[in-house]
Amino acid sequence: MAIADIHAFLQDLHTQLKPLSEGQLACYIPELAKADPHWFGLSLVTLDGRSFDVGDAQQTFTIQSISKVFVYGMALEDYGRENLLKKVGVEPTGDPFNSLIRLDADSKRPDNPMVNAGAIATTSLITGKAPADRLNRLLAMFKRYVGREVFIDMSTFLSERATGHRNRAMAHLMLNFGMIDEHIDEALDLYFQQCSVLVNVHDLAVMAATLANQGVNPLTGEQAVGSEHVRDILSVMYTCGMYNFAGEWAFRVGIPAKSGVSGGIIAVVPNQAGIAVFSPLLDEHGNSVRGLRVFEALSKQYGFHLFDLCLGRCRFEAALQGPGGPC
Questions:
Q1: Directed axis angle between helix 154-163 and helix 184-195, to 10°?
Q2: Among 194, 212, 234, where does a domain finish?
């Protein structure tokens, strides 16, 4: 299979799945309810910087919960693994991402950084002298992953801030147990801001490819996160990144991933590629309906599942190299 066939396969998937109308928009955040349900983009970026974009690949949207992956990496750099584990665990929950009860019964820490409670706790740990310093550090971190300046969508930020009562309740509960400090409003504002960063699906694929490349952005060559933290980031993505669908995702697709309620999904094929899909119609778990179908098809076609082992690496490298490749 030649390189052109990868693009053709993505294009065929896009054509097949675009008529799909299952799912709902994330109406509980007013700004997200304004999305066009027909938006649908795919992107795959390899470690040598080659890009395969299909559909609405330049359509911007807010990153939402996909941001949790990268802020977790930032917290790992600020605190180290063991210190961070005292505040946020790494256990999958089996419960919805916005569950109010997901604090460990003994330690009182959130179960993992991919659910809202854990993400708020993680964000509250980001260091800086003042809120503006912490926000600027966060935006600089996203810039290293994307390879360009990123910006906050103020309408979405204000929408989430005005309606985020459930997240505010989680923060007060964690304050009660000593998991976060009393600067609740500052922590929540930063959390709502990180979720409101504007990206497109190509940006997300570059971010995923950066994790696949041991933290080095394949387009710019810049180290976005220390390579020593990438294994921890990918491990939590694999076990917790798809909310209470994480087990079935691991079974059917089998690569580290993270979804967001704006309709994005990123996935990392370690040492090979980053992949992203954007389609705002969501299933009952908050995952993109078209996105799930895309990744199931890609995993089957190229053997991406982690437990396909050598078979997966061989299929994809053969696709990239064309005739005379490793297979």
A1: 130
A2: 194
* Residues 38 and 142 both lie in one domain: no
Tell me if residue 302 is catalytic.
Answer: no
Mean pLDDT by 10 residues, the chain (327 residues): 76 97 92 95 96 97 98 96 92 68 64 92 93 97 98 95 89 85 93 97 98 98 98 97 92 97 97 97 96 96 84 69 62
Is residue 42 located within the same domain as residue 134? no
Which residue in the list 88, 197, 261, 277 is annotated as catalytic?
261
Cβ neighbours around 28 below 10 Å, total: 13
Q: Catalytic residue at 68?
A: yes
- Active site annotation includes 150: no
Which domain CATH number covers 240? 3.40.710.10
Domain holding 138, by residue range, is: 66-194
pLDDT for 131 equals 94
Query: What b-and-e string marks burial along 114-151, b requiring 16 or more CB atoms within 10 Å of the CB?
Result: bbbbbbbbbbbbbeeeeeeebbeebbebbbbbbbeebe
Q: Is 86 a catalytic residue?
A: no
Select from 69, 79, 78, 124 the least CA-distant residue to 240.
Answer: 69
Residue 1 is predicted with a pLDDT of 36
Annotated active-site residue 191? The verdict is yes
- Among 201, 243, 262, 294, which one carries the catalytic annotation? 243
User: 198: helix, coil or strand?
Assistant: strand
**What confidence score (pLDDT) does residue 324 get?**
57
